[in-house]
Amino acid sequence: MTTYTFPPFYRRTWLPLAGLLLLISTLSLLTGCTESAATEATPKPHAYLHQAASAELSPVPGYSVQRSYVGRIQVQQDAHIGFEQAGKVAQLFVNEGETVSKGELLARQDTELLSVTRQELDAQQQQINADLALVEANLARLRSLKSRGFTSAQSLDELKAQRKVLQANRKRTQASIHGNELRIRKSSLLAPYDAVISRRLIDEGEVVDAGSPALTLLQRDHSEVKVGIPVTMLTQLADKQQFSVRVGNARYPVRLLTRGFDVDPTTRTVQLRFELLDNPPLVNGQLAWLQLEQYFAQPGYWVPLTALTDGIRGLWNLYTLQPNNDNNWTVQSRNVRVFHSTLDKAFIYAPLIEGERFLTKGLQRLVPDQRVRLDNTLASAATAGETQP
Questions:
Q1: Distance (Å, rounded) from C-alpha 337 to C-alpha 315?
Q2: Up-side HSE of residue 315: CA atoms within 13 Å toward CB?
Q3: Which single residue of 18, 171, 264, 283 has CA 20 to 30 Å from 202?
Q4: Comparison of pLDDT for 39 and 327, the residue scoring more
Q5: How many other β-carbons are positioned within 10 Å of the β-carbon of residue 208?
Q6: Could you give the CA distance from residue 71 to residue 288 in angstroms, rounded to a whole number?
């Protein structure tokens, strides 16, 4: 039998190493036992469920949209008046911005030539009257002579014809006198109604043509509002219906007068005329905004804007909640179509179920198929605020 004897060097190296390995193995066994005991002694905690705010879906048959249309204030009569005959402007009695009453004198033309013509016509009238008086006297004498046989019937006929000519000339002269008086009267420009002088287009001493504009008059206390609206809105208006318009920061009541029957080729709208009630002090040409409510018969649901999140391909998503057996809910994503939105709400449509719950806010912290628990306080507040605007 062969016996191997290790040198002293190897005996000194391996014996301490074997002792160290035995010590490490013992410590590992003790640590493992301690961790197992601690794990068995500590109970496993429940899974955390996020609190979610929710509300119930309530369907509505349609929604209304406030439309705003711009128009302008316009007086009933905006006239450019002038003289009916040519002549020189002698006097101007008004200026821009002044108010005038109906029949008030605004301007006057020079009537010196008309006065001279009137004198000439008066002289002609006097001459005709004198000639008629002479003819009448001659007729009386010839009738007396004819009864005694001293004159012929021809002489009487000639005087009668001369008298008719003079009578016709007298009527023509009287007509000329009346025309002269009319021209003198029309040389004075009068206000046709209570108005405000908007523009003055002539000056004193200027020679104007017949019919050329002299003054621009805006009628007072009878302003209107003219607004163009689409043809589709006409069916929602009734005659004499009252509305309100906004001019600047104030609102004024108006009443519908007439509706147009033709479409403007530029704006593609139909013009409406509204009467301004109470005669407010507005300026011609001011902008006025009319708000009309347009109703759309589209079934759907009103939801807060915070309940919507972006979907793929431009769609919008609504997170609904499906109940579980352990009193928690599972989040599901539903594609919806948005028809209208306001500052804080949106009108949507999707094949949803009436009374189905949906998340109202906090969507950035949740994902589909996640389990959540409802916060009753937040759910009550969301349901109370879910009203149609």
A1: 7
A2: 12
A3: 283
A4: 327
A5: 20
A6: 5
